[in-house]
Write a structure and sequence with these properties.
The longest helix is centred in the middle third of the chain and has 41 residues. A four-stranded mixed sheet has the order 3-2-1-4, sandwiched between helices. The protein is mainly alpha-helical and about 375 residues long. It has 13 helices and four strands. A hairpin with a 4-residue loop joins strand 1 and strand 2. It starts with 13 loop residues before the first helix and ends in a 10-residue tail after the last helix.
Length: about 375
């Protein structure tokens, strides 16, 4: 009785999930995408950072050289700007392209390749201050998110501290280093902290992704009545389908009542299959299948044959082969000529002997 009151206890149907996807409602963790981009940025800076720093150093040296400063004309300035942009762009291109690829990868692994215009359509309801306050203050999900964010902050702080805790002596002694050495040491520490933080955030974001998928599946759950309505829309009303099957069965029986009484013989399996054959010697051609059936239909064919005196012969291999390969109204293929001719010859002899009232006997 729970579903009668609207309790959503059933998993969403494939159609419901597809409709949600078309509306842009998918299981996605923004934390996972951000963590992948952050980790990629740290790794790319480690690989291409020296090249980028060298390119900017070359640009600054050329821009501040005495030759350039002493001859700063409009044409020279434009040439210098173009050269500087080219050097900086070529150096930074691997970093930029890598970050773009990481951002795309972070989305593709979660939701695949798809685009939905529904997410781009403006929604005036989203501008409601009351709904905004409700989203901020109401619901257990808000407090769960707050607790998760606090937990992430604590973990990131602990990880960052662990990266520099063992190097406090180096930090204190940095005052005795020149600016190049101090900058190198600081860059190394920052890189170590950033790398550890990025890895930890990636791990935490994976848990967030799992939670988002669970939450998405829970939000899409349906009541039993909604599932029934969905099945009706997809497959049609079960009552109508049953009615159509009933009509089709009745039409098949009507055809059998018309075709089987005029058949020369019914070949059976003996109970699973039944195929009614008729040969028109005057019309020429090969014998035809005038009716066939399996299960209950086969039983109906046998019943009609007995009522109308049509001989029934048990030939299991032939009955199965004819049922599977020949449609109603078609002539039998050539490979069945010999077997069917033998049966018809036997039936004609049999019916000649049974004209005294024993027609319809089973052989």
């Amino acid at each position: 009785m729970a579903d009668e009151f609207g309790d959503k206890t059933e998993a969403a149907t494939p159609r419901k999930r597809e409709e949600a996807r078309e509306q842009g409602r998918v299981a996605k963790s923004t934390d996972l995408s951000a963590a992948i981009v952050l980790l990629s940025a740290v790794l790319l800076l480690g690989w291409f950072g020296p090249g980028i720093a060298g390119a900017f150093k070359e640009v600054m040296q050329e821009a501040l050289s005495l030759k350039v400063v002493g001859d700063m004309q409009a044409g020279n300035a434009a040439t210098l700007a173009g050269r500087s942009m080219l050097l900086a762009g070529l150096a930074a291109a691997p970093l930029v392209l890598g970050l773009m690829a990481a951002a795309m990868f972070g989305n593709v692994i979660q939701v695949g390749l798809y685009a939905t215009p529904a997410r781009l359509q403006p929604k005036l309801s989203a501008l409601s201050p009351l709904k905004g306050v409700k989203r901020i203050l109401g619901g257990a999900q808000v407090w769960v998110s707050l607790a998760m964010n606090i937990f992430k902050l604590v973990v990131v702080t602990a990880v960052g501290y662990s990266a520099v805790h063992g190097r406090l002596g180096e930090i204190v002694a940095a005052q005795r280093l020149d600016h190049t050495q101090a900058f190198g040491m600081a860059a190394g520490m920052v890189y170590a902290v950033a790398l550890r933080v990025a890895v930890v955030l990636l791990i935490l974001s994976i848990f967030d992704w799992v939670w988002q998928k669970f939450k998405h599946g829970r939000d899409l759950r349906m009541t039993k009545q909604e599932v029934r309505d969905e099945m009706k829309r997809m497959e049609g009303d079960p009552l109508l389908k049953a009615r159509r099957r009933q009509i089709a069965t009745q039409m098949s029986r009507d055809r059998q009542k018309q075709s089987v009484p005029g058949a020369d013989v019914v070949v059976t399996n003996p109970t699973e299959y039944a195929v009614a054959l008729k040969y028109d010697a005057a019309g020429g051609g090969a014998p035809k299948v005038v009716a066939k059936g399996r299960g209950l239909i086969a039983a109906e064919i046998r019943r009609i044959a007995i009522e109308n005196g049509v001989p029934i012969l048990e030939r299991p291999p032939l009955a199965r082969a004819l049922y599977r390969t020949v449609q109603v109204g078609q002539e039998i293929p050539e490979e069945f000529y010999s077997a069917v001719a033998e049966i018809l010859a036997y039936v004609y002899e049999l019916t000649g002997k049974l004209r005294n009232g024993r027609a319809g006997a089973r052989v």
